[in-house]
Each structure stands twice: as C-alpha cells, then as structure tokens.
Amino acid sequence: MKPQELFKTISPVLLLLAFLNSCNYTSKSVQTVKMDREFHFEDYEISKGRLGKIKLGTTIQSNTSGIHQMDVKQVPGYTFGYDGGGMAYLYSFKGEPVFALLPAFETDSIIAIVAIHEKLKGPKGIHPKMSVKQLQKHYPGSAILFNLMMEWEEMIDAKNNFSFVFMTENADRIGNYTLPGKTASVPLRNLDCKSEWITID
User: Fold this and answer.
1) For position 83, what pLDDT does the model report?
2) Other C-beta atoms within 10 Å of 134: how many?
C-alpha cells in the first residue's frame, strides 16, 4: 500500500479517536468544576488561634490562594470591630458569608479571624448563631460585656480567645447596664438572642 493510501485510511481513525478523547476531556472538566463548587465546612474547624488551616500571624495569600469556590470582597475592618482604616476580606459561598480575615494595617498578616456561618464548628460543637441560652450551657456564669465603641454586646471565651458578638439595640439588650460606664453584666433578658459571629484573635 502506498504511503498516500495508508494516510487516507488512518486519518479518519485518528480524527475519531481525537473527537472521542475531546468529549471525554470535556466531561471530566465539567465534573471538576462541579467538585470545585463544593465547600467542606468540616475542614474549617474553629479552634484557638485558627480556623482550620488558617492561622493567626500567617498571611492571607498563603492561606487562601487555593480557595477557588468562594467569592471574596473587601469590607471596612470596622465592620467587625477593628478600627484604624484597615480592610477585612469577607469570604462567601453561594451568596452566604462564611468567614472574614483581618490583616494588620497595610500588611497581609492575619490578626483576627471572624467565623460567621453556623456550619463552622468549634470545641464541644460551639458555632456562630448560637443563642445566649445555648452558650450559657457551655460557659456557665459568663458575663455579657457591652462594647462601648461598637455598641454591641459580647460573651468572651478567655481560654480560647473567642468573642461571641451580639448585634443588639437598646430595646433588645441582653444585659442590664444601669450604672454609668458599666460594661459588664450577667444576662438578664433576651436570652434567645443569637450571636452574629465568633471573633478569633
């Protein structure tokens, strides 16, 4: 058989194989995209000084460069109680905020982590969006503190450096702050109020 005839015979076979391989690659690509859109909350455990592998003192870039399935935007650090003109990086999944990272001013070094989504779990199952009543079972006798700068209330886990933040107004305060300048109180009312987030610092 002449080389020209051999080429004519083989070419359609090669084209068919190339087409089938292309279809298979496309199928795998779609599957990969679907896998990338999953978010595993269990990989982001709340613990002292860290959220999963994201650790205080490390850089944002080194911790988040591989997170492709999340949306990120910058918000003022003041949103989470950090003044000084810096920005926070808010990470969301499917339109729901999951966590935020706050770097030191004009650096990439993380000084605080904010756990927002209730599927993020910590020691003994604690998580954002827990009520005061639920938290009292984990932290019996803990005081509610009034943050004068932000005008919200907090419950502190001093052992782990966690702060549970409650975005309350005057009419629905958890504690009773009757003395001028008093910022600590035992919970007296509104025990069903749920925390907005947990700050790790």
Assistant:
1) 81
2) 16
